[in-house]
Amino acid sequence: MASALQEVQVHFTISPDQSQPVGILASHGHRCFFEYNPEWLQRKLELSPFILPLKSGLVEHKQMEFGPLFGLFDDSLPDGWGLLLMDRYFRGQGKNPATISPLDRLLFLGTSTMGALTYHPAARPVSQGDAPLDLHDLARQSQEIFAGSENEILPLLLHVGGSPGGARPKALIGYNPVSRIIVVGHETIPPDFEPWIVKFSAREDVRDAGPVEYAYSRMAEAAGVLIPPTRLFRTDQGDAFFGVKRFDRGPVNRRYHIHTFGNLIQTNFRIPACDYADLFKVTSILTRNHRDLLQAFRLMLFNVLAHNRDDHAKNFSFILDENTGQWALAPAYDLTFAHGPGGEHSCTVAGEGRAPGFKHFAQLAGQYDISLKDMDAMIVEVAAAIKQWPKFADDAGVPERTKRKIGDILKK
């Protein structure tokens, strides 16, 4: 990485025509700094209250074991799939991805980020426009990208899937529920289109990953877990891709500020080091709303009882209302059957990762002023929904073998 000073302007963008400078993000060598603009300080809107509280002056990022960037800005960078696409693009331009700085990556994303933070001056390739997309073709091409082949659709894949987190291939789309036309949805989408994320299968995934995740979303909803709208996107070739409506976007290309739990406290989500007690503590402090705490507790119960052990620190988020400055627990996402690292939960329950149960739930309930009556009621409701797994699986088209395999584990 070059040792010259590099600066990036960070904006808070709530719509294509409403964007306000937040501050300057800078790097020099391996050191990273941030300074709020005086005008933003006057607005008194906290974007990352634990690590970057509102105050004047230069702040240096010193928690290098977390990563090279403040967590607030790291949330704008992609994880596995988006990073793979980005690196392929840089290699195609004759650049070694190892030499691309984190700030260069933010500028590459520019305004094509999740959430409300954008980075300027943007250096992103030209948009592919509003031409209709073929999900089957995109899925096939994503598999070729995983296999290492070079093909002409890489710029399009980069545009539709270069920003989301997670390891599985994804596409950000605009979907018209009337015409059922799908277009690129990275930045702005036409009127009458809705913002969605569509997931494809990774190399190690089975073809029924989409139906399984859709069945889990319906099961979570029945369990009282707050989730965004979900659906299966089916193609003429027989594909069934899981889709979830974006909660970082609203009508007329409205953008909302989202901060993941892991990056809010700057803990590396790849290293299982968090407990649900940490999530509950942050939820209580940040939202000051007992209903959000109850929702987080219900989500924990669902993840445990439904065997979703990939419950790492970036799989929980908070959403900011910029009009009031109030934070809320964001809708749940990435809910599916998963064994987790070493067969344990990524996020432990009162210290237990392999076999959390009633005593661990009760311990956390006692610590966070959740009555045993409320806890018992939530357990009953969540367990009742999970008992309906066969129905949700059938409705989603989960193959019989996969349905029985998951069902046998859920009965334990």
Task: Describe it.
- It is a single chain.
- The chain has helices at 38-43, 71-74, 80-92, 102-109, 135-147, 154-161, 209-222, 261-264, 276-287, 290-305, 358-367, 372-386, 389-396, 400-410, and strands at 6-15, 18-28, 31-36, 59-61, 117-120, 170-175, 182-184, 194-199, 230-234, 240-245, 249-250, 254-255, 257-260, 317-321, 326-329.
- It is an alpha+beta fold.
- The protein has 3 domains: 6-120, no CATH class; 135-249, no CATH class; 252-410, no CATH class.
- The strands form 4 sheets. It has a 5-stranded antiparallel beta sheet. It has a 5-stranded antiparallel beta sheet with strand order 7-6-8-10-9.
- Helix 7 crosses helix 13 and helix 13 runs antiparallel to helix 14.
- The longest helix is centred in the last third of the chain and has 16 residues, at 290-305.
What portion of residues belong to β-strands?
15-25%
Major sheet: order of its strands?
4-3-2-1-5
Helix content: 25-40%
- Gap from first CA to last CA: 51 Å
Shape: globular
Uncertain ranges: none
Radius of gyration, in Å, reads: 21 Å
Count the beta strands.
15
Main β-sheet: number of strands, strand sense, barrel status? 5 strands, antiparallel
Order of helices and strands: EEEHEHHHEHHEEEHEEEEEHHHEEHHHH
Q: Number of helical runs?
A: 14
Integer average pLDDT: 92
Number of domain units = 3
* Helix and strand composition category: alpha+beta
Quaternary form:
single chain
